[in-house]
Amino acid sequence: xxxxxxxxxxxxxxxxxxxxxxxxxxxxxxxxxxxDTQEKFINGPLKGFIxxxxxxxxxxxxxxxxxxxxxxxxxxxxxxxFIVGPARGxxxxxxxxxxxxxxxxxxxxxxxxxxxxxxxxGAAAAxxxxxxxxxxxxxxxxxxxxxxxxxxVD
Length: 154
Known about the structure:
The protein is an alpha+beta fold. The protein has a single domain, classed as Aminopeptidase (3-Layer(aba) Sandwich), CATH 3.40.630.30. 31% of the residues lie in helices and 29% in strands. The chain contains four helices and seven strands; from the N terminus they run βααβββαβαββ. The protein has helices at 12-25, 34-43, 92-106, 121-129, and strands spanning 3-6, 47-53, 56-66, 75-83, 111-115, 133-135, 142-146. It has a seven-stranded mixed β-sheet with strand order 1-2-3-4-5-7-6, sandwiched between helices. It is globular and about 40 Å long. The relative contact order is 0.15.
């Protein structure tokens, strides 16, 4: 069984390690260090969730809040969702998305969105398999979760 918690200062080294793995997966170079990661997640605008199994970090999700004047409540974007290879396909991503959804709802948000690179069809297929609604009016693949009846997501 895996456990999801909000990122705390003790999680920063493990979180940065997984961020670096995600960057490498996409062929990018991660320029963030420990201090930068701590600043963004502990002192700054990002909300992070980390998944652990037997104490080992196996995944993370990052939430960013966006304000839009044409919507009620903030829009939350799951900017990163990453699961380490051996833990994929075991429900970790779904549990991380549920933690993001619960947090966004607790903040009064009406919308939660997640996207992936067109070069990552496996992630898009996973989001479809989870039943997330695809947004077809914007470049994607992008998906949404309505958090309240008044929530309009584009």
